[in-house]
Automatic annotation (TrEMBL):
One Gene Ontology term of the molecular function aspect: glycine oxidase activity
GO CC terms of this entry: cytoplasm
Gene3D superfamilies for this protein: D-Amino Acid Oxidase, subunit A, domain 2, FAD/NAD(P)-binding domain
One Pfam family this sequence matches: DAO
Lineage, opening ranks: Bacteria, Bacillati, Cyanobacteriota, Cyanophyceae, Synechococcales
Record carries keyword Plastid: no
Protein name: glycine oxidase
Domain of life: Bacteria
EC assignment: 1.4.3.19
Record flagged with keyword Transcription regulation: no
PANTHER family: GLYCINE OXIDASE, SARCOSINE DEHYDROGENASE-RELATED
Keyword field: Oxidoreductase, Thiamine biosynthesis
Class of enzymatic activity (EC top level): oxidoreductase
Amino acid sequence: MSEILIIGGGIMGMAIALELRSQGAEVTILSRNFKEAATHAAAGMLAPQAEGIAPGPMLDLCLQSRAFYGGWCDRIEEITGAKTGYWGCGILAPVYTLPQNNSDYWLDRDSIHQFQPGLSDEVGGGYWYPEDGQVDNRALAQALWLAMQKVGVNVREGVEVHQIQHHRAKINCVETNRGTHTAQHYILATGAWSQELLPIPVYPKKGQMLSLRVPQNILASFPLHRVLFGSHIYIVPRQDGRIIIGATSEDVGFTPKNTARGIQSLLNETIRLYPQLKDFAIEELWWGYRPTTPDELPILGTSPYENLTLATGHHRNGILLAPITGLLITKLIGEGKLEPLLPHFHYSRFSDRV
Ligand code: GLY
């Protein structure tokens, strides 16, 4: 396989790097700031069903990736000895207002309160998705970073690509703060920042988050062992006693910082759904930028340049879609194999904007 340069050190770039390297490619990955990626801001839900993704290619992509997740994390843990926090804990989606039609996943009022103690009395029922789950995205990011070093990916942190140089339909090189880099093939995995390098419609959608800590004296008996996915909130209990809470969804560009309003809305919805959390200590507040496209679907596959592949715009589902993205992009570049799902995510659907 050829020599490949990946621009972007978030989960997508790392997943692709690992997969390509395991197929024998010489891979370099350029990361501007490892901690800046949406990867670190996420809650790590693996939630194709709880997110209510409509049947179609996107749901198929998400379900395939969810099916790979456990094995993918096992592989990363074997390579590194590091934990990823993968947990097939299921996701419970409680509702306050009863729907007109229920599905096979429906739990009525009595069943849901019996199944999950501690929910607000306002909860009138909900959906239980046992195959959804979570991964500790920060632990996974660290493990992937380590895995890349172990398998021999050339990892370059603190390298910012300023410009992609091309001649006609071919990329010649990328200009960075550390000089010029060349490769046979390039992959753009720069998430919310993609427009800085290429005119593709990927925009930041800010999400504010916070975490609580279960008090040590009740940790053993605290009964929340699954993700709660409410209508404006999700509550993700980690196995170490942290509880991740997210997220706002704001069109404010790259405006940094948490806001009083953002955190207030998260706390109100949290306490409404699971009242006991009101007394837990706040551990951390943070924010991040989802890479969002006009139809909220990722941009995957070939580009206007013959030696540039796109893997960006995963919106709310980047953590979930990392394994399948790594696999499909590797098959495309390594074997020239266009898996049937890929064309649905081609950039040309936005040809009036590119
Ligand atoms: N995946 C959940 C979110 O983007 O907030």
